[in-house]
Amino acid sequence: MATAFRATTKGYRADLDQHERRLLSSLCADVITLLQNREKETDSTPDGASEDPDFAHFRAEMAGLGSDEPLAAPTDEVLRRLLPDALADEEEAGHFRRLSESSLRGAKLADLRTARMLLESSPLSIQEDVAPVFGRALNDLRLTLASRLNLETEEDAERVHELALASRSKDSESFMAEIYTFITWLQESLFSAMTEFLPEEETDEDTGAA
Amino acid sequence: MSSAQGSTLSREETDLDSEFSQLLSGQRPYQVVVWNDPVNLMTYVSWVFRSYFGHSKARAKELMLQVHHQGRAVVSHGPREKAEQDVTAMHQFGLQATLEEAE
């Protein structure tokens, strides 16, 4: 039985069973694959171009700068949630997406890869500096599952919660609901612990507006 | 418009003045809006507002509750470039956010 995250002298620690760590890791791998497929889909580099990984970042930048065409939002619901439109107007959103999506995708891929690496250790021990990374990755897993469970309203959230608690019959929807609820619990415990250690600093804006 | 009353600007005129200067500089002000959604946890959203914008605990909670109860909250203002940076950061954290011209 898993125990939630709590603060330690070296960061945060949770005790997860091996199958729980494997499950989280394989979910991360699924989202990584989704994001990589999107990368291939949007890659405008002609075939036969250099495959040198050192130039991958450069090519990603050029892909953004090379074209003035707006980039259409992904058709997959999960990808639309992970890589949302930044503007209400579709065309403006497409232009912004052309410039920004690859770096957002890259940031999410990096978070998920780090999370997979961290999930290799038992107990799950997360140092202070990578805690936000792990927390963002957990959030992306929840967004992914929520999207697959059509969780769009507060009522839906209630339905998913009921589904996770009530059902012992393991159809794929109730299984997903159960995992979603598990990750919610894990993420909540991590950020509750992290919030305790966040130093209180007032910005000028805060003192001015108060 | 000239005025015989001289140099005493009312507060209203001062505000207009700053809007004009923003127009003259060619930079329209933008704002970033975070939208409510049933997935992101209250603890998480408050933490994001504190750690990214440097808000106090109380201010972050106030903004988070505004998102939760009113469906949206303006979390930052500024030139287009800053708004783009902030909206991308919010997307990295997985929050639903858009940028728009400030009213």
Walk me through what this model shows.
The complex is a heterodimer of chains A (210) and B (103). Chain A has 210 residues and is mainly alpha-helical. Chain A is built from 8 helices and 3 strands. Chain A has a 3-stranded antiparallel sheet with strand order 1-2-3, covered by helices on one side. The longest helix of chain A is centred in the middle third of the chain and has 29 residues, at 90-118. Chain B is of the alpha+beta class. Chain B has 4 helices and 3 strands, in the order αβααβαβ. Chain B has helices spanning 11-24, 42-53, 57-70, 80-92; strands at 30-35, 72-78, 96-101. A 3-stranded antiparallel sheet of chain B has the order 2-1-3. In chain B, helix 2 crosses helix 3. Chain B is globular, with a radius of gyration of 17 Å. Chain B starts with 10 loop residues before the first helix and ends with a strand. The mean pLDDT of chain B is 85. The A-B interface holds A 82-88, 96, 100, 103-104, 107-108, 132, 135-136, 139-140, 142-143, 146, 151-154, 156-157, 184, 187-188, 191-192, 194-195, 198, 200-203, 205-206, 209-210 and B 38-41, 43-44, 46-47, 50-51, 53-57, 59, 84, 87-88, 91-94, 96-100.
